[in-house]
Amino acid sequence: MNITDTEFGQIFPFYFQSDEYGQITQTGPSLQRFLQRSDQGKSLFAQFTFKSPAINDLAGLDNRIENIFLIALTVEPGLVLRGQFLRLQHHGGYLFIGVPWVTDLKSLSALGLSLKDYSLYEPTTYFLLLNEAQRSSLEKSENIKGQLQELNESLAKRVERRTERLSQINDELVASQEKLRQEMRHREEVEVELRLAQKMEALGLLSAGIAHEINTPIQFIGDSLRFIQEAANDLQKASIEYSELIDTNQPEIKQKLLSINKNYDLDYLLDRLPESIDRAISGVDRVSTIVRSMKAFSHHTESERNLANINEGIENTLVVAKNEYKMIADVETHLSELPNTHCNIGDLNQVFLNLIVNAAQAINERFLRHNLRGRGKIIISSAHVDNEIVIKVKDNGCGIPDTIKEKIFDPFFTTKSIGQGSGQGLSLCHRVVVNQHGGSIKVESEIDVGTEFSVHLPITSPEYSYEEATS
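Now predict its structure.
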């Protein structure tokens, strides 16, 4: 239910509100007439004297917040308000709701006030009227009767206005209920997204563990192969020197050696062994590169940000994602020298992976749709522009229709068939780049020409909380 400041002032005409530092920010209409005459500033302790309980700072107010207060205006000491303070949780300020503490209409009039300055339903007005009726003569009673009539007429008009307002509030309540239903549906969608994220987190941890377990034996194999390579080179050199030492005047020995060489095919082995070892070492180096990239890509840092090199993240992601694009497209990189940046590199790696996989899938879709031959192209670039790092991923795929371009970052939005896409990839990209790192992500696309995603990251990332980043 929404109530405007004007309506709140009609209900509590002597209320005032302050911020967390005790500076008055809003007042009711009846109280405002007095405060606007004051030159004491906006501090509630300058504008009011706390008579009961006697306090003079916010700490005392917090300690006695449950009490009923009597406070006198500095500009009009005779006007004493009786009421209660409330602590406003949503912004840390204070709200005072009260009324003038008087016992008769004469005292009220002396302060320049009347019953019209009270709210419609304030019981004090009836007490003052009854008290005045007991003390006044019949002549004054007739005058009071007129005032009552005036109040009744005012009441009738105000009740009529309240009835209209209640009708409006009822309409607002219906709209709020619909909004609540939408929020509940959104919450269910977020819960599905959270479960998916938890599964991906578990998979990442598992991948990191496997990569760690593979890394050690691969190092052993690599070291052993390099030893064998050196040994084979030495054996090849030794064989040549042995051959040079053979006495050509001893044909029997020479013939025996030639026979041994032929039986064991030593010349072929000595010729091909170094090449085979080189291929094995190259394969081990390739596996080591993949393992290192998997460890870097799967690095689990939760919400923690550290200094990281964006280019290294892109290169590691390309190694991990190679199986997605190697049969479809060639990748061209233009990575400029970049400063290290405070970021969550694990989450950014996931962004790069999603963009690269989407590019490969878009190229594959276009080539299949138009029965094209050849290979597509993915161009990845990075640059330091002003105080930002800009990463671009461009493809010559099927493109994105203008009709859905505004929706692609929405959670669960996808144009892929059931089972081929969850609608979470670009939504995750937007959340990581915008919500978590305070950057931006833009897209330019043309049907059957291609798409370019631009990720803009501030070099000094703002300090967003983990809750804000995942909300």
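The radius of gyration is 41 Å.
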